[in-house]
Design goal:
The chain is mainly beta. The chain has 1 helix and 6 strands.
Length: 93
């Protein structure tokens, strides 16, 4: 395992094979794709009350979704954008 610093990510949600971040983060996307296997990813929610540690992660897919709010605000409808990363954890070598 590398002595590389962990990649810390504030995630909206996560499950056994994916995590979702708010908006787009080109630097994060490049870092995760550039490194075919990321030694350590730390996921945490916005207030830090929940977290997950992922080891030897390979990103298998990534997709950005846009959703327009159904509620009309004073400035119009709000467009939300989230990016989902699908991953697999590889066994330790």
């Amino acid at each position: 395992m590398s002595d590389e610093e962990p990649v810390e990510i504030e995630a909206l949600e996560w499950d056994a094979d994916s995590f979702t971040i708010e908006g787009m983060n080109p630097q994060l996307q490049q870092r995760l794709i550039r490194n075919s296997v990321t030694p350590l990813i730390l996921l945490r929610n916005h207030d830090g009350s929940s977290s997950r540690r992922l080891r030897n992660v390979r990103i298998t897919n990534m997709r950005t979704f846009q959703q327009t709010s159904r509620v009309e605000t004073a400035t119009g409808r709000v467009t939300l954008q989230n990016t989902v990363f699908w991953y697999e954890e590889l066994p330790d070598r």
